[in-house]
Amino acid sequence: MAAALSPDVDVVAIQYPGRQDRRTEQPVEDLAILADRIYEVLRRQPELPLTFLGHSMGAVLGFELTRRLEADGHGPVRLFASGRRAPSTYREENTHRSDETILAEVRRLSGTASALLGDEEMMRAALPALRADYKAVETYRCEPGVTVDCPITVLTGDSDPKTTLDEAKAWAQHTTGSLDLRVFTGGHFFISDRSKEVLQVLEQHFQAERARTVG
C-alpha cells in the first residue's frame, strides 16, 4: 500500500519489538509503555507534517501517540483509525490468556496467510508477540472524556466482528476536531481486501494537505 502513494509522501512503518527484524527483543505487553517508547523516538525527529494510520491495536496506539505529541505542541494533522472501536468503548476480552484462544482468534479473523496458519511451528514461534499485542490492547483503558485536537478519519468494515458501526462512530467522543467515518465492505482485514478504496481516501487527504500548505 505504501508504494502506491504519491512519491512525495514519506511512509514510515513502526515495527513492534518481538516481530520480524526485532524478533530478538522482548515484546511489550503494555500499550502505554509502547506509546511512550515510540513517542521518545518521534519527538527527536525533524518537525514535519505527520499523518498517523493505525489498524486494529495500531489505531489506539496512534491515538495515544497523538495525545503525547499534542501535549508538546507537535501533533499530527490527522489520525486515521482503522479496524478498531473508539478508545473508551469496552468489551470484556481475554484472548491473551491462553495459546489456544489466541490461535483460534487469529484463525477466526483470517489475519494471517493460510500457509502460515497451517504451519504449527511458525504459529508457535509467533505466539509471544501475538500474546503481547492481545494483552496490550485488551488491558488498555481510556476514559470517555479524553480527546485529541486533530481530526480523525475512522475506517471500518461493515462486517468486522471487532467493531460495530456504533463503536466506530464513538470515536467522535475523542476529538475536538472533525470526524470522518468511512465504511468499507469486509471484515476485520478490509484494509487489505479493499486496499484500492482505502488508498483513495488517503490520497484525498494528502492532496488536501498539499493544497493547504501551498495556499
UniProtKB/TrEMBL annotation:
Ranges of residues in domain Thioesterase: 2-204
Pfam families with a match to the protein in the record: Thioesterase
Domain of life from the UniProt record: Bacteria
InterPro entries: AB_hydrolase_fold, TEII, Thioesterase
Xref: PANTHER family: S-ACYL FATTY ACID SYNTHASE THIOESTERASE, MEDIUM CHAIN (PTHR11487:SF0), THIOESTERASE (PTHR11487)
Family (UniProt): Belongs to the thioesterase family.
Protein name, as recorded: Surfactin synthase thioesterase subunit
Gene source species: Streptomyces griseochromogenes
